[in-house]
Design a protein that fits this description.
161 residues, alpha/beta, five-stranded mixed beta sheet, 5 helices
Amino acid sequence: MRILGIDPGYAIMGWGIVDYKGNKFTPVAYGAITTEAHTPPEQRLMKIYDELTEILQKYEPEEASIEEIFFNSNTTTAIMVGEARGIALLACVQNDVSIAEYTPLQIKQSLVGYGRAEKKQVQSMVKTILGLDKVPKPDDTADALAAAVCHAHSRQSRIYR
C-alpha cells in the first residue's frame, strides 16, 4: 500500500510517501511545499494545490493520512492553516485518494507509544522506522512521514477495521 502523509501548513506543508507491505516500510519520496510571505493568500493556496496535485499524480498513493489542526491561541494562523488543509483534502479527493485524519496525540502514540512525546522523539522514530540516514528536514516533512506511518499502523489495528 502506498500512503501519502501530510502535515498541513500555509507557509510550509510537509509531505511524505511511504510504501507499506508486510509490516515493512519503504520511504518513496518526501519534502515540503513552501509559500512565500507577502504573497497574496489565493496565490499561496494555488501553489499548494498545484504542487500537491503534481505529487499525487506522480506517486499515485492509494491513501492519504493528514494531521488534524491543533492550535493554542493564534486564531489567524489557525484559519490560514485550515485553508491550506482544505486545499490538501480537495487535492486528495480530486485524485481519488481516500483520506484518514489523525490528531497529533494519535500520531505520537502510534510512533513513540506515548501521546505526549517530544517532537525529537517522534523524529527519531521516523528515522528509525523508515531506515533513513538522518531526520528529514524541515520538521514538517518528518511530521508528514509520521502521519503516514501512523496510518499504516492504524490500518493494521482491529479498531480501524
